[in-house]
Amino acid sequence: MDSPQVEIRRATEDDLPGMEWEGEFRHFRRLYRAAFLDACQGRKTILLAKSDGVIVGQLIVQFGTDLACLPRPELTGYLYSFRVREGFRGRGVGSQLIETAEAALRERDYQQAAIAAAKVNPRARRLYERLGYSVVGEDPGQWSYLDDRGIVRNIAEPAHILAKGL
Ligand SMILES: CC(C)(COP(=O)(O)OP(=O)(O)OC[C@H]1O[C@@H](n2cnc3c(N)ncnc32)[C@H](O)[C@@H]1OP(=O)(O)O)[C@@H](O)C(=O)NCCC(=O)NCCS
Questions:
Q1: DSSP-derived secondary structure letter, 30
Q2: How far away, in angstroms, is 88 Cα from ligand 1 center?
Q3: What is the pLDDT of residues 29-58, one digit of tens each?
Q4: 10 Å Cβ neighbour count for 119?
Q5: Which residue CA neighbors atom 33 of ligand 1 most closely?
Q6: Which of 18, 59, 63, 106 ranks highest by number of CB atoms within 10 Å?
Q7: DSSP 147
């Protein structure tokens, strides 16, 4: 299938509402704003795939990680919050986002990229392996966040951690 015409670029503050899509990801509002503030400080980059001005995919890059299973975590970029809209999946948009993230890490002399694949998501793992990542460990995937209404949400999503040398 043809690759859709998408443009990959860094998020601006004006993009934050669009990252909630049509409300499906409203619960992450505070996380996205915090990630944007981190991006302003140079600690993260938010990459968006846009088609006709609409956000159809996203990936956040964190410069440095504290994942215990990785050697040299301070030289590792951690990729997360990765998704592509359903009608755009399977056409290379996700791969383009990951490749752009890797380029951003190389530019900053990071030596490794890492990403988590939920154990219940073998298709995502297959994509990462195809892009050169391999499993280096596991993570219980337990974390919490405050949703848009200020309610604590607890997540438990056991994951494989995959990494790739850059
Ligand atoms: C994973 C995801 C971001 C990949 O984006 P994409 O644009 O479809 O990726 P590409 O077109 O570059 O690569 C296609 C590969 O992605 C993976 N993929 C496709 N649809 C997927 C889905 N619904 N869920 C998980 N992985 C999927 C498959 O490995 C696929 O290869 P295949 O067609 O040979 O099975 C996208 O499918 C998605 O948003 N999935 C739902 C959310 C998710 O699983 N995020 C990852 C969290 S670890």
A1: H
A2: 10
A3: 999 999 999 999 999 999 999 999 999 999
A4: 14
A5: 90
A6: 59
A7: -
124 lines ligand 1 (CB under 6 A): yes
Give the residue whose CA is nearest to atom 48 of ligand 1.
117
CB of residue 92 inside a 6 A radius of ligand 1: yes
pTM: predicted TM-score of the whole model, two decimal places? 0.96
Q: What is the rounded distance in angstroms from the CA atom of residue 76 to the CA atom of residue 72? A: 7
Ligand 1 atom nearest to 159, measured from its CA: 48
Cβ of 141: how many Cβ atoms within 10 Å? 15
Could you give the CA distance from residue 97 to residue 7 in angstroms, rounded to a whole number? Answer: 10
Edge-to-edge strand list for the sheet holding 7-10:
7-10, 44-51, 54-63, 76-84, 112-118, 159-165, 134-139
* Distance from C-alpha of 81 to C-alpha of 126, rounded to nearest angstrom: 17
